[in-house]
Design brief:
The chain is α/β, with parallel strands linked by helices and 193 residues long. The protein contains 7 helices and 5 strands. The protein has a 5-stranded parallel β-sheet.
Length: 193
Amino acid sequence: MPAADHGASSDSGRGGPPGVVIVMGVSGSGKTTIGKQLARRMAGVFADADSFHPPANIEKMKAGHPLTDEDRWPWLDAMAAQIGQWLSDGQPAVLACSALKRVYRDRLVAGRPQVAFLYLSGSEAVIATRLANRKGHFMPPSLLRSQFETLEPPGEGERVVTVDIRHPPRRIIDIAARRLGLGPQPSRVADGA
């Protein structure tokens, strides 16, 4: 049975439903799966942070080397610019991004209250099992430990909803949508779970 979901650090009601939701968590937590479904629920677009990485970052991770902050700043700035464009265009959007440190999340949000986080929380053991079964991704399971060491769970002052990843995808989306103020699921949207 999944642990109780919490929003103790949640400020998700601030300013109405978000225009952009960043689905965050360590590699293997389900960001892409949940992000795509949440984007459908919001009638918005979906983007994966991996597509914003320069080739050098991808090669570094494929080789089993964790990225440094110097590697990450241009990547974060490119995503922040895209978030700004979505908001400017009035385009609902979901971005799947690890966003492990508070400073990274602050850089992505850049003071915009229309941006919220969905933190997919799970134990290292559960996520290690998922990664071991995942095929075709450049992030090797060996980097999971470094991700947990880097992770700063969202806290005070962050607009965030936290959901335990042991729930099935449909339940995660329902919890997130309710807490983010997105309203009921439109009947024409398939959950894909």
